[in-house]
């Protein structure tokens, strides 16, 4: 997820009107291409979160972005309802570990506690499922309001090239302040903020990290309904799509890691999936009207399904399945 400080190091961002995009009022079709094979999914058809597929990050760290929530594993913040995962951010004081285990280990007091004014949830497949190359799609309905920051993203299962961001980060979808109306000079789109982002983080360890991001206006997200966000990821290439339409492509020449000269690194390793709803933090609070609007809570992010495919005939690189394009 992009912080305000990291955003100043933007490498190769683009913002443009997404012509010809269609609203997905119903379920987006699953991949029917014979060359993609479904290898993992969660349809959230049960009555509880499947703990064989998902774990929870539990901390009040703020993601390194000064976010205002504690992440919990409470059913008040994450549950399955009517065939969907519901991540709920609540305006309530919450106390928990001040740091995630990766930071607390040898770098901070592992028993330190923090209190935040909001609670929410972050689900992860770390230690349960991870993939190298493939097609990942998530059908989700996003919350709206100043300070909301839903994200669908991926982190390396093993930090082969070192700590963040040397081993990379893939942000499939981020959106902030959806629906907020503000003057054009504040960056809002007409009719309400409707920007979605797809981003890669890479380079060196903080603060020598870098990123490349594409953000587009996508008015259909203002309808409050479900839309499908995805990537197709192969050796040396990653594409981003919304409701089946590709809006960004990044190639190996767009990224690097200071840990090796391998041109495909760091995005040539296994990554796991994260789903979360943050409140506040650098990116939403520096945009639109600024800060966090504390009205209208609770806020909910709904996920209808998560699906992962891999390239049946090209499991080694995945390239031959990426939209059949000549890359």
Set out the fold topology.
Blueprint: H1 4-7, E1 14-15, E2 36-42, E3 55-56, E4 69-71, E5 78-81, E6 84-97, H2 101-107, E7 113-120, E8 122-124, E9 134-141, E10 148-156, E11 169-174, E12 195-203, E13 209-217, E14 227-234, E15 237-242, E16 245-251, E17 271-279, H3 282-285, E18 299-311
Parallel strand pairs: 1-13, 4-7
Antiparallel strand pairs: 2-18, 3-8, 5-6, 6-7, 6-18, 8-17, 9-14, 9-18, 10-11, 10-17, 11-12, 12-13, 14-15, 15-16
What does this structure look like?
Helices cover 5% and strands 39% of the residues. The protein has 327 residues and is mainly β. It has a domain at 34-41 and 125-321: Jelly Rolls (Sandwich), CATH 2.60.120. The strands form 2 sheets. Strands 2, 4, 5, 6, 7, 9, 14, 15, 16 and 18 form a 10-stranded mixed β-sheet that branches. Strands 1-13-12-11-10-17-8-3 form an 8-stranded mixed β-sheet, with no helix packed on it. Strand 15 (237-242) and strand 16 form a beta hairpin. It is globular.
Instruction: Bin the helical content.
Output: under 10%
CATH architecture descriptor text of one domain: Sandwich
Secondary structure class reads mainly beta
CATH topology (level 3) name of one domain: Jelly Rolls
CATH class of one domain: Mainly Beta
Say how many strands there are: 18
| Largest beta-sheet characterization | 10 strands, mixed
Gap between N and C termini: 28 Å
Query: If you compute it from the alpha carbons, what radius of gyration comes out, rounded to the nearest whole angstrom?
Result: 19 Å
User: Helix count, per DSSP?
Assistant: 3
Mean pLDDT: 89
| H and E order | HEEEEEEHEEEEEEEEEEEHE
Hey, roughly how much beta strand do the residues contain? 35-45%
Shape: globular
Unreliable stretches: 2-32
């Amino acid at each position: 997820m992009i912080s305000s400080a990291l955003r100043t190091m933007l490498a190769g961002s683009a913002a443009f009107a997404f012509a010809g995009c269609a609203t997905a009022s119903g379920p987006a079709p699953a991949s029917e291409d014979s060359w993609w094979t479904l290898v993992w999914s969660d349809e959230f058809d049960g009555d509880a979160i499947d703990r064989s597929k998902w774990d929870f990050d539990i901390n009040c760290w703020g993601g390194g972005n000064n976010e205002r929530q504690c992440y919990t594993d409470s059913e008040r913040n994450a549950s399955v309802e009517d065939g969907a995962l519901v991540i709920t951010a609540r305006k309530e004081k919450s106390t928990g570990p001040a740091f995630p285990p990766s930071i607390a280990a040898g770098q901070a007091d592992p028993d330190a506690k923090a209190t935040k004014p909001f609670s929410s949830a972050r689900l992860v497949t770390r230690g349960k499922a991870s993939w190298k190359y493939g097609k990942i799609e998530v059908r989700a309905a996003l919350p709206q309001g100043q300070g909301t920051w839903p994200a669908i993203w991926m982190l390396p299962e093993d930090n082969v090239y070192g700590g963040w961001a040397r081993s990379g980060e893939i942000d499939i979808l981020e959106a902030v302040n959806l629906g907020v109306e503000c003057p054009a000079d504040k960056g809002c789109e007409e009719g309400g903020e409707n920007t979605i982002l797809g981003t890669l983080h890479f380079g060196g360890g903080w603060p020598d990290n870098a990123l490349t991001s594409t953000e587009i206006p996508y008015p259909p997200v203002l309808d409050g309904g479900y839309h499908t966000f995805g990537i197709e990821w192969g050796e040396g290439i990653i594409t981003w799509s919304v409701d089946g339409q590709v809006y960004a492509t990044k190639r190996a020449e767009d990224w690097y890691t200071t840990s090796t000269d391998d041109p495909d690194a760091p995005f040539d390793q296994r990554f796991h999936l994260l789903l979360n709803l943050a409140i506040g933090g650098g990116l939403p609070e520096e945009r639109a009207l600024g800060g966090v609007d504390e009205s209208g809570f609770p806020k909910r992010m709904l996920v209808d399904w998560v699906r992962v495919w891999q390239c049946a005939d090209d499991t080694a690189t995945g390239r031959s399945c990426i939209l059949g394009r000549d890359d």
